[in-house]
Amino acid sequence: MKSYDDRLCYLNASKVLSPAGGLSRVDLRSSDNKLLGDLDGVIIEPAERRLRYFVVTSPGWFRRRRYLVPADAAPQIDTKSRTLRLDVNPADLCACEEFDDRLREFSDDDLITATFARTA
Fold it and tell me: What residue spans define the domains of the chain?
């Protein structure tokens, strides 16, 4: 994603609804139940109706970083505990690419594109 593909855009987690409610208020954990940090948002490809990355803010006192975790990292959501689990180890999070705000925000045009896009 280093090229910052113009087909991709950022959507804040507070604007994403799931079976567990808004994603900004889910507990983000690894598959072995270790805390990963906070879910900041998602990177999507509207024309493909595809979630590409989770933007994860690492916990930290001084410098909080945001990492791109590929969405193919087997996400699982538990609606009862409001927990989103990703198949990534907290120690490996820093090996993920950092997110630096160069992607555009999800727009009304992206919503129209996603709504009327043909699916495969």
Answer: 9-112
- Identify the CA nearest to 21 among candidates 88, 79, 107, 106: 79
Q: Beta 17-18 vs 21-22: how paired, if at all?
A: antiparallel
Dist. CA 50–CA 97, nearest whole Å: 19
Distance CA 112, CA 117 (A): 8
Measure CA 48 to chain center. 16
Give mean pLDDT, residues 87-115.
82
Residue with tokens 């909080």: 64
Q: Look at the alpha carbons of 102, 40, 62, 83 in this order and tell me if their dihedral is positive or negative.
A: negative
At which residue do the structure tokens 């567990």 appear?
20
Report residue 43's pLDDT band, with 50, 70 and 90 as the boundaries.
very high
**112: which 2 tokens?**
């129209």
CATH number of 9-112: 2.30.30.240
